[in-house]
Design a protein that fits this description.
Helix content is about 55%, strand content about 5%. It is mainly alpha-helical. The N and C termini lie far apart (about 85 Å).
Length: about 80
């Protein structure tokens, strides 16, 4: 091989759907504290919604409201 091809760095080139060269941006490193806070908030809301749904499914008022909204007669 010639010295010209040996010294040349191999670079990957990406193209967007329109055929233009795309700029490759490396993702920023995660901030550990904000990432963990986001995960905690997500799971807290998810558990709150699931827990609230389980709790209210046993209340008679919940059945009445659902029956009124769906137009069916609660028996």
């Amino acid at each position: 091989m010639s010295s010209h091809t040996e010294n040349r760095e191999i670079q990957s080139v990406s193209f967007d759907p329109f055929g233009e060269k795309a700029v490759v941006v490396r993702p920023a490193p995660r901030d550990g504290r904000s990432y963990r806070t986001g995960i905690i908030v997500f799971w807290a809301i998810a558990l709150l919604l699931v827990g609230g749904r389980i709790y209210t499914s046993d209340l008679p008022i919940a059945r009445t409201v659902v029956a009124a909204l769906t137009g069916t007669i609660a028996q």
